[in-house]
Design brief:
The protein is of the alpha/beta class. It has twelve helices and nine strands.
Length: 317
């Protein structure tokens, strides 16, 4: 009988149970170890992944494409200008067609409704590579990185600084489901999605973890094991000067990092702007693990693809 993740969509992490999230992280760790030992793991031989990019990408495209190759399958890159979406074909119709050719669809979109429309039309698993609501695949890579650095995720305290954006929402979704505490520090008017925040608090109550929100960055950093930031201006946003002015007090400076416990590390989903959301001394310092974090996108994406597309992938967990 297929495992519980086989054939499922991955749109947001709040639809996944703690055990399912743990399975993805465990499978990623197994695949990473196998890759480093040079062991082939062609779980998706003969299978194909359609990749739709309505937004530009470095890590998402590269890691899904390489990951699919390492799993023995192939990935098909489809930019916004190369598909009929640009000429008026609906996302649902696109999904129906691609479902006849491929075994999964990954999309990097603007509005979350776009990934939902793809999922409604598709008969194969749909993976959210990024939407304006959430970035679940990045949050899973973050969880793997934190597990590697601290020996686990239970009890780890993560503090996020800056805009309450899709990355914040994804971290709020995953933190209580893997036993982490999370603090979010944003400027007034840039808070995370209220529904996501409420859902995270409900999940935290069940998990006996904490979800805290503050406008004081030093309050969030005071007991943090992980200081996390993202760019202040995302693709498609036009209020650049206003945003940067509001975010400046929430930059992860050397002073802010030094106010945290000495064990604290710095993470960033990349790309990062040194001198804006993070000091160069922090980004390139000994407590920064952003490139380990970026590498883990590959291993997490492979785990997601294997578990969603192969009934045999349960042995990875």
């Amino acid at each position: 009988m297929p495992h519980s993740l086989f054939g499922r969509d991955l749109l947001t992490l709040d639809a996944y149970t703690p055990s399912q999230i743990a399975d993805i992280i465990s499978a990623a760790a197994t695949l990473k170890a196998q890759l480093r030992r040079g062991e082939p793991h062609h779980l998706l031989a003969g299978k194909s992944l359609a990749m739709i990019f309505l937004k530009h990408s470095t890590r998402t495209r590269s890691s899904f494409e390489v990951g699919m190759y390492q799993l023995g399958g192939q990935a098909i890159f489809l930019s916004a200008n190369e598909v009929q979406i640009s000429r008026g074909e609906t996302l649902a119709d696109t999904a129906r067609v691609l479902s006849r050719y491929t075994h999964a669809i990954m999309a990097r979109v603007f509005a979350h409704s776009q990934i939902e429309e793809l999922a409604e039309g598709a008969s194969v698993p749909v993976i959210n590579g990024l939407s304006d609501l959430s970035h679940p695949v990045q949050a899973l890579a973050d969880a793997l990185t934190i597990k590697e650095k601290f020996g686990g995720t239970a009890g780890v305290r993560l503090a996020y600084f800056g805009d309450g954006n899709n990355m914040t929402n994804a971290l709020l979704d995953i933190a209580p489901r893997i036993g982490m505490h999370i603090s979010v520090a944003t400027p007034p008017g840039y808070e995370p999605d209220p529904q996501v925040l409420a859902s995270a608090r409900a999940a935290a109550e069940q998990a006996e973890t904490e979800v805290r929100f503050t406008h004081d960055p030093y309050e969030a950093a005071a007991d943090a094991d992980v200081l996390y930031s993202d760019v202040w201006v995302s693709m498609g946003q036009t209020d650049t000067e206003e945003r940067i002015a509001a975010m400046r007090p929430y930059a992860i400076t050397q002073k802010l990092l030094d106010s945290a416990p000495s064990r604290a590390i710095f993470l960033h989903c990349l790309p990062m702007h040194r001198g804006e959301e993070v000091d160069a001394s922090v980004a390139d310092g000994p407590r920064s693990f952003v490139f380990d974090q970026a590498e883990n996108r590959l291993h997490i994406h492979k785990a997601i693809l294997a578990l969603l597309c192969s009934p045999e992938a349960e042995r990875l967990v």
